[in-house]
C-alpha cells in the first residue's frame, strides 16, 4: 500500500490545529485535569518510597500506597504547623503593630493637612467612603470566598485520592499505555515513561532545592539586617517566590509593611530592595538552571511554559506546565517528524544527538 506524504504546509496546519484543540480541551476541562496532573506528579514523586515499602517492609500495594500518601500529608502538615507557630508568635505582637500603624496614620494625616492643605475632616470622609465601598465588596464576595475555601479543600482531597490510586494501579496504567501502541514501539514508549518519571522527580526536587536556597538566603539576609520576624518573612517570601510574577511582589509588600511597622521607612525600603535583588538572581540564574535545567529546557521555553500555564490553568498551571513541556520534549525526540520541536524546547547543546526514531 502506497504511503501518502503530505506537504510541509499541510502537516504544519494539522499540527497547529491539534495544538489548538489540545489547549481548548485543557482550558475547558481544567477542573478535571489540574488535580489529576497534581496527583500524577505526587504519585511519581512518592513512587520510590512506595516501592521501598513494598520490597523492604513487604507491605501490600494498598498498604504501601496508603502509607506513602499518609507520610506525604504528615510532611505537609508539619510544615503548615511550623508556619502556624511563626504566625502565632507574630500575632502576639499585633497590638504593638496596631499602635505603630495608628501613629504612622496620624503622622500621615498631619503631613497631608500641613503640606497639601487637606483637612482632617476631608481625609476622614474620603477614608470612610473608601472603607464603605470595600466593605460592600467584601460582603458581596463572602460567599465566593467560602466557595473558594471549599474548592481548595476538595481540590486537596481529590489530589490525595488520585495519588493513592495512581500508586495502587501503576502497573495497570503502564500496561494500558503500552497497549495503545503496536509491539515494535512499546520498548520506545517504556523508555519515554521511565525518563518521564526521572524528569518529574528531578523537577520537583529542583523546586524544593530552589525554595530551600532562597529561604536560607532570605532568612540569613533579614537576620543580618536586624529585621524582626526574619524567619517568618524569609520562609514566606521563599514559598511565595515559586509563584512567578505575583508571589514576589506580594511578599515584598508584606515584608515592607511589617518591617516599616517595627522600624523605620529606610530599613523597610532596604528589606524590599534586598528581597527584589534575591528574586532577580533567582529568576535569572537559579530557576532556569536548577528547575529548567532539570527538565532540560532552555530558559525561554521555561518562561513561555509558565506564561501559557498561567493563561490556561492560573497559578497551578505555572507549576504544572514545566514538567508537561518536558514530557512533550521527550515525546518529540522519538516521533518521526517532530524532532525539530524537541530541538526548539531543549538546551543549546550542539554535541547532543537525538535518539534514533524507529523506522516502519
Describe it.
This protein is an all-alpha fold and 360 residues long. The chain has a domain at 29-180. 83% of the residues lie in helices and 0% in strands. It contains 13 helices and no strands. Helix 2 (30-55) packs across helix 3. The longest helix has 49 residues, at 120-168. It starts with 7 loop residues before the first helix and ends in a 15-residue tail after the last helix. Mean pLDDT is 78; it is low at 137-147.
Helix-and-strand structural type: mainly alpha
Large-scale geometry: globular
Main sheet record: none
Radius of gyration: 26 Å
Helix content: over 70%
Low-confidence stretches: 137-147
Strand and helix order: HHHHHHHHHHHHH
Topology, element by element:
Blueprint lengths: L7 H21 L1 H26 L5 H31 L2 H22 L4 H49 L1 H9 L4 H43 L4 H12 L4 H17 L2 H30 L4 H15 L1 H18 L6 H7 L15
